[in-house]
Each structure stands twice: as structure tokens, then as C-alpha cells.
Amino acid sequence: MKYLNAHIVLFINLLLLSFYGFSQELTPPIHNYTSTNYKAASQNWGIDVSSNGIIYVANNQGLLSFDGQTWELHPLPNGGIVRSVFVNENRIYTGSYKEFGYWTEDATGALYYTSLIPSVEKNSMKSEEIWGILSYKGRIYFRSFGGIYKYEDDKIKEIDNVVSNKMIVYRDSLIVAVRNKGLFYLNDEDKLKPMANQKLLQDQLIVDMAVDNEALLIGTREALYTYTKKGARLYPDKKLLNIIRDSELNHIMTTDQSLIIGTVKNGLVDYDKEDRTQLVLNRNNGLQNNTVLGFVQKHGNLWLSLDNGIDRIELDSPIHYYTDDTGELGAVYDLAFQDGRMYLGSNTGVYTFKNNKLRLIEGAKGHTWNLSVFNNTLFANHNTGTFRVVDDSFIPIENTTGSFNMTPISGDSYFISTYTGIINFNFTNNSLTRLDRVDFPVKNIAFEDDNIIWAAHPYEGMYRIQLNSDLKSVKALKRIELPRGGNTINTNIYRVNNHLALYNGKQWLTYNSFNDSIEGFEELAKFNGHKLLLKDREFYWFNDTRKNVLELTNFDNSTIIASEKLNTRLVKNYEKIVRKEDSVYYVALNDGFASVNLKKLFKDMELISISKPVVKGFQDIEKRYNLNELPEIPFKNSRNISVMTSLPVSDAVGLSYELKGEDSRSGVIKNGSLNLHNLDHGEYTVMFTALGPQGKLSESSSFDFVISPPWYLSSWMKFGYVILFLGLVFCIYWFNKLKLRKQQLLLEQKFEKEHKERLSALEKERLLNEITLKRKELANTTMVAAKKNEVLMEIQDELGKDKNNFSNQFKVKHIMNKINKAVKNKDEWKVFETNFNELHADFFKDILERYPKLSSKDLKLCSYLKMNLTSKEIAPLMGISVRGVEVHRYRLRKKMKLDKKENLSNFLIKEF
User: Fold this and answer.
1) Cβ neighbourhood burial of 474 (10 Å; 0-12, 13-18, 19+)
2) Would the pLDDT of 16 be above 70?
3) I want to staple 286 with a disulfide (CB 3.0 to 4.6 A). Which of 3, 30, 148, 522 is the partner?
């Protein structure tokens, strides 16, 4: 199984290769590259391959290269047509019109051109084009139709001014085909000398030559010759010569087994030198153009430069295709082999295929579902019935309804699954018995035991049918309900490891006879979603329709074969693989079939290699970088980074990458270019791994690069940031210090102010207390004085009333005068005035300024009124009666010209 696992994947991968040319013969895989693919001119004049597998093509727009991943065009500085290309060591030599030189790879991986024309002697090269280049004894020779030039030691020397068509190295000599003069060799003096024994080649236009062991093959437009020491003679195969004559020979190449001829009119001829058979590949069976302008073989592939496009042919492929380009065959549903003949059953009929020719059997037109060979007889399940194929005749067995399949019972008896039921068919007596009660279409049948069969309905699922012992009548019939969610359309029934296996497009089920129920098939659980295509001895072929992969298994070991194009070639829902012999398989395709030689396939698999991926270029949005140095990309240029990779010699089926660094990414590379967008700055490593068949991985290659930080994160800017930060810290410190000092001063000022305010408040409070105290003292003093005067005045009044009763009138009068003097004591007024002024400073000054005509008596009354004393309280102080106070108040009001409504005390208190 390990051997099978190691080789089987190529079978499917090659099977699914894209093939664009069609003909009625088996052809190897042909891969077409159009001008749209390689993005250059359609015409390609020559082709060569380097030692590491890179293809170089001489194209009308310049030099084309293909590294297994991408095509690149390298135009000449003058924009000329490249007519020839030759790879020698690390140089690619090209020839053009009045121009030849070489291309080399610079440190960035890009090709640059060096012209050798400046080394040519002046006027040596006229209007010539270089059509051939080769290496001989370490020198490079360039051939035009007008001369031959030798490049040695960085110098160009013209060998001879002759018209030549071809040059080649044969038996350690440089051989030149001179037009209409035959073969010449170059001697040590760089002179052309005619070769011996070439009379047959005289006057022949030689277009190409190739070395075939000891012989030299010489091709003209219409013939092929062999040349040895004995001379020249026609090639000894008239059939091949006829093909050459009709096709117009253009190029020759030999291998150990084959002679490959490129023609002008008929594409490519692959001639087997041993069995003298030939395979013609042209526009009708896959090539893009019938004019082969050049070819080269490398690593099992033949590359063709065509007049229109580039093709790659796998001549030794174990896979060969038959594809019907007419549409007559249609989709192939089945293949069968009987009596050495191959039969195809398609949606258009039953065909025979022999000697690469397709022929419809008479009467077999129409949709054919299945072909079976039993007892050396070919049976066909057709849209119109069931038929036998005998001597290319379509003989009906039962044609009342179409049929899907045939299942052997025993001996010569078979069950035929038809559109309307099941028929028991006995081949010996040609009897047909339709099973009663089975009146629905049946796609296929499987036996549960000798008397119980399961029938698959195309739309309604499964039926379990118990038969009587003669197997010609039904004893019991039951429709089987699938588990919830099970699909009933296109449900199929199989026998797998002696178990009934049901597949409904998603899940594998089996029948449990003990509890009469349908349940999951554990052995096939991992194959859910896999359709069974073929039971090949101990192996089973599955098709995973969800992922488009094939899987070959014996349930102990499995081989998964992935293919993105699986359903583009296989017939959807009717995939079919047929084994013809131990090593030969045939696969039905929607436009033909494929032949697969597994023995050869396994042999070729041993040569499969998965090369290590190569980084061939690295660039940002502005420039390419030297691959020999660590690229350091400016941050402003890192928005789009491209890493170009190549796999020139590899059987890899994919290329993956993993990016490690500040950003981590992984994925698959397509078209050989990895584009990385918007990466952060830092150091990166990108790992490349090629993926081969069966998941085998190549040795990983890595590439390192650095993205510089942006200008604002550079070292100088970081140093500036440190200085700025320190300056900012200092400024903050200095600012905080100033702020603290200012705050301290403010606090001191506030404290001083509050202290002063506190002292002022205390002083004010003290003064207010003093004023209050003085006011109280003044009030008390005034009240005491008033009380005293009031008492004195009462005594004076009493004495006045009783003065006549006193004997000493003089004494009484003297007493009354003393009382009167005491009442009107000026000293008391001065004391009052002094105390009053202390409380009401500038009162008298202010009132006199407004009312200068006021008398001292008026001022005295004003002061008493200012103290809010009543007339009764004022009267004793002034030594007058209350009436007198009122009269005085009235007069004072008049002097002040106050309104009658104005309260005099309130006015004085308010205004002064």
C-alpha cells in the first residue's frame, strides 16, 4: 500500500491536466500557453532551457522566461525581435536583426542585456539576422544567413562570409550546412572545409540536423537523410518520409527511443525508432499551431515554440487521452472490453474504438447507461431497452422500456434494472420474467441474501424485496425509510465487505437485520460524502464530490488524490473508472476517455522530485533589492512588498508561505508572486515550502528582510524624543516650582490679608464695642443728665409754686438760680458734645455745611434728635418744656425746609 500511496496521486493529477486540442486518437497531455498567458507576441522563433530548468523563448517582443511559476518578458534595448536563443552556463545568448549578445542575472535577480555588437569589426555585419547560436570548445558561435561569428575572450571574429542554414557539433567538429553546397566542417584555422561522401546532399536545402548515436540526421523540407563515414542516404522508413514530404520538415531532435520532428504544416511527429510507429500531434489534437519553430526537451517535457503560442507535451506520460472534438460521442457513461475490442457507452449511443477510430454501432444510437460483459457477451443498458452486442450488431433482449443496469444472479440468469421495474432474464433460453409488484424505476440491485434483494429507486430511495425461491415473483415488498434528513434522490446500494451499504450523496448507511433498521455504517463513516466508483480487488475507489478529490483505500490505508479540476473532466454524478488489465485503467470523461498505465505511472513516480523553492526577486513599490544582502526597506515604501519565487524543476502541486515577524501570516502563493501589504516595521522571515503529491513537502527555503521604522520612530527621533521628554520633565519641574512659589506667595499674601482682615475685624469689633460702649455711656450720661435736669426742674417748679411760702425769698431765688444754672450747665454740654463727636464725627460740620444758619441751640437739638431722643427726653436736657421742644423742632424743620411728612429724627439719622 505504501508503494501505491507513493504513486497513485500522479495518476489523477495527470488525468486532470487541461487539454485543449482534440482528435480521434490517443494523445499525451498537452499544455497550451497562449500569448495571453505569457503576455507577449504570439510568434516564438526558438526555445532553450537552462540547467536549473528555466525555459527561455525567442519571442517577437523580446526574450521570454518561465520559471515554473511565472512568465516574464525581457525586451531588447532596441525593441527588436529575438530570432534565436541559446543557454550556456550562466548566460543566455540571443540573436536579433544586426544585434546579438547575452543576458545575465544581476544581484537583484533581474536579467540585464550586454550587446556584443560593439566588439564586431566596423562594417562586418550588414543587414543580417542571427538565426543560430551554439557552443563549441568553450567558444560561442553566432550564425546568420550571411555569415558566422565567433565569440571568444570578449572578442568577436567573423569566420566566413557564407550563406548557411544550420550548424551543429558532430564528432567533436563544428558542422555547417552551406546553402546548396552541402556540409562543411570548421578546421583549426577557422576555415570551412567540405565533408566527404555527401554527393546525395549536393544541391539540397538543409533546414536542420541532429545527432543520432553515430549518425548525423539531416533534414530538408521534404526528406530526411542519415549521414555517416560511409556517406549519406535516405532514412529507411518510407511511411515517415511520406509524412515529412506532406508536412514540410522544420526541426529534428532525437532521444534514446524517439525521433521528434517539428514541421511547418502538420505540427509534431513523435517517431518510435524501435517499432517504427509515429504519433502526430497537431492543431487537431491539442497543439495551438501546426508550425513548430523550435523545441527543447527537459525533465520529461517537450517544449515547443510555435508560430502561435508555446506548448508543453508530456510525451512519456502514462496518461493518454481520447477526446472527441466533433461532439458526436458526447459524455461517456461507461467503457467495456470484449474480444479485444473497446466499447464506449455515451449519451449518444454505443461505439467501438479501434485503431484510434470511433464508430457507432448500427442501431445503437441513443443514451446508454451501462455496459457489462457476462459470459463473454457484451450487454448494453440503453434508453430504449436492453441489448446484446454481437459482431457490431445491436440485438435487443427487451425493448419495451429503457434499462439502467444488469446484475448477475447465478448461472445464465440476470436481473435487469429497468425504467419500470425488474426483469429476471435467462440468457440460455432467452426468457424474460417481470417481477410482480415492482412497478417503479430501479437503478441498481444488491443482494442481502439468496432470496432478498435491495432495489435503488432514482428518486424515492430504497426498497427491500423478498422473493420466492424461483426468484421470479415477489413475496414481500417494503419501502425503506432513511434516517431523518436522508436524501432519497440518487441513492445507491452496494455490497462492501459482505455488508449492504447505502449511499445517499452525503452519508454511508447500512442495514441492521437484527432490529430491521437503517443506521450509520461505522466502517465507512470517514467516507461520508464520498461516492464509490470502483471496487478493484481489495481496493475501493471513492470520489469526494464536496472537495473534488479521489480516494483509494483498502480501509486500512488510504490515498487521497486532490484535483481542482476533477469535475471538469469526469461526468458529474456518473463518474466511472474501469480496469482493463492489471496496470491499465480507463476513465470515462465528459468528452471522451483517458487511458492510464499504472505500471508506467509507478515507475515515473520514483523520479518525482520536489525542488526547494527559490526566491528570484524582492522589491517594494520603488525598487528591487540585492538578493545577496539583507534588504532594508524604508517604511514609506513597505505598503506593497513583492517576493518573486520560482520552482523550475519540480513536481510540486502548490507553494505555501509562512511569514514570521511583527506581523504573522500564511497562505498559498499563486502565479509565483507573494504580495505583502501594510506590514509593521521590524525584522521578518518568510518561509517557502513546496507541496508535492500525497502531502509530501519540499525542503523549506527562507528569506529575511527588515522594514525600517518610520521617520518618527527612527533612532535620531527616539534620541530627540528622549531629549524632548527630559526637557519636558524639566519644564514641568520648573513650571511646578514657579507655580509652587506663586502659590506660596499667594498663600502668604492671603494669610497676610486674612491676618490683616482678622486684625481689622478685631479692631473694628473693638471700635464697634467702644462705640457701642460710648454710645451707651453717652446715652446713659445723657439720660442721667436728663433725669437730673428733670428732677432739678421739678424742684424748681415746686419751689416756684411755693416760693411765697418761704420767708427768705432771696434764698429761694438763689436756689432757683443755682438750679437753673445746673440745668443749663455748659460743662455738661461740652462733655456731651465731646462724647457725641467721638461717636458721630463731623456731624456738626456736615450739618452746618448744608444748613449754615443753624444756631447752637439748633445744633444741640439736632444732636439729641440724632440720638433718637423723644421730645420728653430732650426737654430736661435743654432746660425747656416739652412744648418748647416741639416749637423748637418746628422751627428747625422750617430752617431745614423739610416736608411735614418727613420725620426729623429719621432724616438726621439717615443723612448725617
Assistant:
1) middle
2) no
3) 30
Q: Report angle CA 556, 16, 49 to the nearest 5 degrees.
A: 115
Task: For residue 883, count other CB atoms closer than 10 A to its CB.
Answer: 10
The pLDDT of 69-76, averaged and rounded, is 94
Please choose, from the candidates 180, 186, 174, the residue with its C-alpha nearest in 3D space to the C-alpha of residue 145. 180
| CB-CB neighbours of 677 under 10 Å | 10
Rounded CA separation 665/656 (Å): 11
User: Does residue 492 contact residue 444 with C-beta atoms inside 8 Å?
Assistant: yes
Strands 444-449 and 452-457: antiparallel
Task: Report percent pLDDT > 90 for the chain.
Answer: 42
The 3-class secondary structure across 590-645, one letter per residue, is: CCEEEEEEHHHHHHHHCCCCCCCCEEEEEECCCCECCCCCCCEECHHHCCEEEEEE
Pairing of strands 632-633, 701-707: parallel
Q: What is the pLDDT of residues 622-676, one digit of tens each?
A: 899 999 999 999 988 888 999 999 888 777 777 889 999 988 889 888 888 899 9
Beta strands in 735-810 (DSSP E): none
Give the CB-side neighbour count of residue 817, counting CA atoms within 13 A: 6
- Average pLDDT of the chain to the nearest whole number: 85
- Its CATH class, for the domain covering 614-713, is mainly beta
Nearest one of 263, 168, 180 to 217, comparing CA atoms: 168
Grid coordinates representing 341 are 475490442
Where on the phi/psi map is residue 276: left (φ > 0), alpha (ψ -120 to 50), or beta?
left
Question: Residue 318 — very low, low, confident or very high, per pLDDT cuts 50/70/90?
Answer: confident
How much is the pTM? 0.73
Q: Give 405-456 pLDDT, tens digit per residue.
A: 999 998 899 999 999 999 999 998 989 999 999 999 999 999 999 999 999 9
Q: pLDDT at residue 578 above 70?
A: yes
Q: Measure the N-to-C terminal CA separation of the chain; round to a whole number of Å.
A: 130
Q: Considering only CA atoms, which of 202, 208, 213, 212 is closest in space to residue 167?
A: 208
> Which whole-number Å values give the CA distances from 838 to 520, 765, 834, 835, 862, in the listed order?
122, 16, 6, 5, 16
Helix/strand/coil for 208: strand
AA identity, residue 392:
D
Question: Would you say 549 and 560 are in contact if contact means Cβ atoms under 8 Å apart?
Answer: yes
C-alpha cell at 855: 444756631
> Hey, what amino acid is at 354?
K
Helices 809-823 and 715-802: crossing angle in degrees, nearest 10, is 170
Neighbouring residues of 447: CB distance < 8 A, sequence distance ≥ 6: 453, 454, 495
Distance from C-alpha of 447 to C-alpha of 460, rounded to nearest angstrom: 19
Written in H, E and C, the secondary structure of 44-103 is EEEEEECCCCCEEEEECCEEEEECCCCEEEECCCCCCCCCEEEEECCEEEEEEECEEEEE
Helix (H) or strand (E) holding 463: strand 461-467
**Strand pairing class (592-597; 584-589):** antiparallel
Q: 610: buried, middle or exposed (CB in 10 Å: 19+, 13-18, 0-12)?
A: buried
In the chain, what are the domain boundaries?
1-13+529-608, 614-713, 716-911
How far apart are the C-alpha atoms of 480 and 456, rounded to whole Å?
Answer: 10
C-alpha dihedral sign at 196, 199, 203, 209:
negative
What helix, strand, coil percent values describe the chain, rounded to 5? 25, 40, 35
Helix, coil or strand: residue 694: helix
Task: Give the burial string for 510-539 (b: 16+ CB within 10 Å, else e).
Answer: bbeeeeeebeebeebeebbbbbbbbeeeeb
Q: Which residue has the higher pLDDT, 872 or 274?
A: 274
From CA 417, how far away is CA 379, in angstroms rounded?
13
Asked whether the beta carbons of 207 and 145 are under 8 A apart, the reply is no
